Amino acid sequence: MTERVLRCPYCVVGNEFMPMIALADGAFVCVKCGHLEIPGKDDLKCHCSRCVELRSLGFRRCG
């Protein structure tokens, strides 16, 4: 079985986006900026500072 890897859309390590840490409840979180994603939950609103800033600028699809 392959392990699912989600990457933070904001944080970069080397030449690629930083892998997010899988939590027991199925969520993924970036240890650097706190960005949160839950696969299958498209209505989730992430409260990391970068998503909050993008929403304040009018971007609609910001986790």
Describe the structure.
Strands 3-4-5 form a three-stranded antiparallel β-sheet, with no helix packed on it. A two-stranded antiparallel ribbon has the order 1-2. By secondary structure, the chain is of the alpha+beta class. The protein has one helix at about 50-55; strands at about 5-15, 15-20, 20, 30, 35. It has one domain (about 5-55). It is built from one helix and five strands; from the N terminus they run βββββα. The model has no long low-confidence stretch (mean pLDDT about 90). It starts with 6 loop residues before the first strand and ends in a 7-residue tail after the last helix.
Brief sketch in words of this structure:
By secondary structure, the chain is an alpha+beta fold. Helix content is 13%, strand content 27%. The strands form 2 sheets. The chain has a 3-stranded antiparallel beta sheet, with no helix packed on it. A two-stranded antiparallel sheet has the order 1-2.
